[in-house]
Amino acid sequence: MKRSWLLLRFLPISGLVALLSGCGVKGVSALIPMGKEAREQAWLMYLSLGIMVIVILVVASIYFYVLIRFHKRKGQEDYIPKQTEGNKILEIVWTVIPILLLCIIAVPTVKQTFAQSDTDVPKSQKKDVLQVDVTAHQFWWDFKYPDQKIETAQDVVVPVGKTVIFKITSADVVHSFWVPALGGKIDANPGQTTKLKLTPENEGVYRGRCAELCGSSHALMYFNVKVVSQSEFDQWVDGMKKGPEAPATASAQEGQELFKQNCMSCHAVGKEGGPVAPNLTDFADRKMIAGTLDHNKENLIKWITNPDAVKPGANMPARGMNKNLTDEQIQKIADYLFTLSVK
Length: 343
Ligand code: CUA
Known about the structure:
Elements: H1 2-21, H2 36-69, H3 88-117, E1 129-137, E2 140-145, E3 150-153, E4 155-159, E5 163-170, E6 175-179, E7 183-188, E8 194-198, E9 204-210, E10 222-228, H4 230-242, H5 250-262, E11 268-269, E12 272-273, E13 288-289, E14 293-294, H6 297-305, H7 307-310, H8 327-337
Parallel strand pairs: 1-5, 4-10
Antiparallel strand pairs: 1-2, 2-3, 5-8, 6-7, 6-9, 9-10, 11-12, 13-14
The chain binds dinuclear copper ion.
């Protein structure tokens, strides 16, 4: 009985520890910043946290000192301490200190907020900035590079050290664009463009996600930001412009034909195909299937066969546009899609 009591008391604490340990995962956490804006935002969080900790320590120390020093002792049952009403100096002190502490937090916070939301790039600096046009859909992300004239989806590739201006909108409902490790976030509104400035400082893959409840698969609306060196980025842009090489195996070639007949009215590869579903030009180089499953053929087949089981509410029809692809045909399409690499 006693033991279960102990367990019950420690359960919330261990739950909290488990929960908080999730806050420190590299690549997904705002507490391990990987970009300039995220670093500045984390610094502001730590500043506020530091001041709060100091206040708590001082208040708690005084509280416990008074509790121990002045508690009623034996023989003092009828004793009433000196009653003080109003103390000008004390009142000034405990009004001025919070004002000062709030100023210490407010000044850098307001400065950062204005600096980070300034996304207007002077013409002379246009060269140093990359623009990416983002369109959020239920439940995936489209990325267009207007200056490079290329388009991709789900995994957005950017060069390290360069400021990226994301121009964000939505094709349907309100979504929210958020890459915790790089800083953020901002709403994606239909019929409106919002802007977010991010400057990644470390190469790597950073998880992004939708942060606004937008439907049944909101929780699965992930994307990745791949931060690569400038030369790798230039290579990727060239590869995207050229498009992937033609498939070599018979199965993948048959898959390409099947893809053209059953998938291409919605999905594009290179410049060919429809714009309503994710562009698949560099599909084989991506990190996730449908933004939620591990990137392998088995999961791709699972996704094409029954999208609703993977991502409820997704607009993709099961077994292709005509809904009649056989298991064997889906296997061939998967073979083809895994040849779509621009590396
Ligand atoms: Cu899109 Cu939540």
